[in-house]
Write a sequence for this structure.
């Protein structure tokens, strides 16, 4: 419990976005996450996230990946996007792999899954 409180205090005491992001990325890396995307929009309405140009994105991914995944609109057909829009909390990426293996993803979802595989992601 003290680790969580220490982390929250450390985050709360940051005076710049860059410093906060560095602290957060280090913490997430301690859990085994080497890649992170954080996205925020003020314009979500139902299943729409609004215009991608209005998104606030922080990420540790390479720029070329983000340009295609976010800028090219692939994110919206990601295998976990529907779940994300309908739920809150955490869910295992294992579900996307299982759906891919079971051939239950739509064609667009399969394309995004395979795009991610091309970048070494699953």
């Amino acid at each position: 419990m003290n680790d969580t409180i220490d982390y929250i205090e450390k985050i709360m005491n940051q005076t710049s976005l860059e410093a906060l992001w560095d602290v957060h990325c280090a913490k997430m890396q301690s859990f085994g996450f080497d890649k992170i995307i954080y996205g925020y929009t003020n314009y979500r309405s139902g299943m729409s996230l609004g215009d991608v140009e209005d998104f606030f994105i922080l990420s540790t991914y390479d720029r070329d990946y983000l340009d295609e995944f976010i800028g090219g609109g692939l994110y919206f057909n990601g295998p976990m996007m529907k779940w994300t829009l309908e739920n809150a909390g955490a869910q295992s990426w294992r579900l996307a792999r299982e759906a891919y293996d079971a051939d239950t993803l739509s064609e667009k979802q399969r394309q995004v899954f395979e795009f991610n595989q091309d970048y070494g992601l699953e």
Remarks:
- The chain has a mean pLDDT of 92.
- The chain is about 50% helix and 5% strand.
- The longest strand covers residues 37-40.
- The CA atoms of residues 17 and 58 lie 10 Å apart.
